[in-house]
Amino acid sequence: MTFTFVTLFSNLIEGYFGDSILKRAIEKGLLDIEYLNPRDYSKNKHLKVDDTAVGGGAGMVMNPQPLYDCLEDLQKKDEDVHIVFLTPVAKPFTQNDAKRLAKKSHVAFVSGRYEGIDERVIEKYADEVFSIGDYILTGGELASMVICDATARNVEGVLGNSESLEVESFETELLEAPSFSKPQTYEQISVPSEYLKGNHSKIRSLKFALSEAKTKFFRPEQLLKHKTRKSYEK
Ligand code: ADE
Questions:
Q1: Handedness of CA 17, 75, 72, 100 (dihedral sign)
Q2: Mean pLDDT of the chain
Q3: Where in this chain does the record put each tRNA methyltransferase TRMD/TRM10-type domain (predicted)?
Q4: ipTM of this complex
């Protein structure tokens, strides 16, 4: 699967792939990471890519021309490319989106800096627009890395151990049960004794109860969603 980052600041992103689980997947040829810089497409003699907002307002907005030409080029090279824009004015990205995007052959992320991107670019080229949460980042780069990471780990073979994808938070709306490593007792605190007894059906029941308790405490709306779905399935 190919990910293309359309950004003025590829250096913000490059380091991440040089040192992560994803590095191994790149070396194995499962993932390919590419970068496109809209500045390389600017027809302005000073290679400007942004300007003040028409109609007033604070900050600089990215101009349409460099992005139009850049994204036209991208689509010409691969007509299957799925173009994703990152902005706080969008639907929230979820685990279901990560799994869905992982089935695509090529996803491109377009990151805006400054006050954003000229809306005409989004209207013309966006297949999807995502926000990663209700807060404002200084640019879309971090958001694009979050979505790339969450998507890439769902690509077949990337994690190596496909089991780790099996019982994850959000797969059933519930948050995952707590995990423990060795030793069994550390600073006088033991892991739940049921985890040690080897009765897998009992361990599963306990994990489910802990999962529900965590979800009720941290994300009550998710628990409600889970219960509603279960009652529909009955
Ligand atoms: N750019 C700035 N803030 C963002 C957010 N919360 N999500 C996605 N892109 C953004």
A1: negative
A2: 94
A3: 1-222
A4: 0.98
